[in-house]
């Protein structure tokens, strides 16, 4: 049975397994919307270059087994060497405090499922939940219909969360292909600050499909950074939608570092709701074999005197396929907007492809907006220059590719994270050079 049929058939059983009945009607409506639209196909403009049939034609288990045997050694391999971090570990959808290190003070942290069951948070969910997530997308509706796993974090006014928080989503001990609908809700109130690192890991040979939706609310003079490390197995699929709404004088960053996973689709929407907002989006993609990574970004400049910066780098080998579609919308009242968008790509094999489409839609007349993209191979003159100085071809290629990707890491201010990304770059470039 294909995934579409399973979503309809399993929903009643799913609702019976939950206790948070106040969302039942909303879930049913969301499923009805999904049923009408179905999964996007290559006939849909937004999925023109991304074929989801490999994902949607498989069978999945909607009720993952909770039992696991994750060891400390396995977790240690996933850590960034972060002795002074907090980390939150979800295994098969369940929060495991015994594997986590949670010292968050003066903030509200709950697993998403627990927050849904907590009457004290009903007003918060009424105010924030599903208010900025797009209502007309198949995957966001499917997520609303089935969401259960993930976390809720509210950082009160002027509270600084000093330690970065690394959130792990692990899947293990699943005999069947497994479907997770992960939901995160982050609220950063006026003058507050928090940094999140998110990673997903499948330990089984069976396939895992994660449909994730994250809503981020950053208030006046607040700062929220969200770093995604996507380095999963070849038996993992990820469709991620992240929506960030910013108020005046706020700063929000989403960095996406993609190295592993069979098919990954990242959707990122920034919504400006005040003046003097800064939004940063950076991405590094290094893939090979028959992997596919698709980045779709959109920045909605609705107010004057705001800035957005997008810088995505891609390195593709073998028969891998990259997609980048970046959009910047500038409202007619959003004067003095400064928007930068750049996508640069290197193809290392004849079979590798990239479809890139940066877009600007500007309705204001006093703005500074630029966009561009490049697709090419390594610079032969630079390669010759390095080799003439005694550097081997393999090392010279790796050095040039590292320099090419490096500027997309410049705004990482978590040193262990920066070191980890540099290590992953070195590892992946070493693999890339084996031809």
From TrEMBL:
<dbReference type="InterPro" id="IPR045595">
    <property type="entry name" value="SufBD_N"/>
</dbReference>
<feature type="domain" description="SUF system FeS cluster assembly SufBD core">
    <location>
        <begin position="175"/>
        <end position="404"/>
    </location>
</feature>
<dbReference type="Pfam" id="PF01458">
    <property type="entry name" value="SUFBD_core"/>
</dbReference>
<dbReference type="Pfam" id="PF19295">
    <property type="entry name" value="SufBD_N"/>
</dbReference>
<dbReference type="InterPro" id="IPR011542">
    <property type="entry name" value="SUF_FeS_clus_asmbl_SufD"/>
</dbReference>
<dbReference type="InterPro" id="IPR037284">
    <property type="entry name" value="SUF_FeS_clus_asmbl_SufBD_sf"/>
</dbReference>
<comment type="similarity">
    <text>Belongs to the iron-sulfur cluster assembly SufBD family.</text>
</comment>
<dbReference type="InterPro" id="IPR000825">
    <property type="entry name" value="SUF_FeS_clus_asmbl_SufBD_core"/>
</dbReference>
<protein>
    <submittedName>
        <fullName>Fe-S cluster assembly protein SufD</fullName>
    </submittedName>
</protein>
<feature type="domain" description="SUF system FeS cluster assembly SufBD N-terminal">
    <location>
        <begin position="4"/>
        <end position="167"/>
    </location>
</feature>
<dbReference type="InterPro" id="IPR055346">
    <property type="entry name" value="Fe-S_cluster_assembly_SufBD"/>
</dbReference>
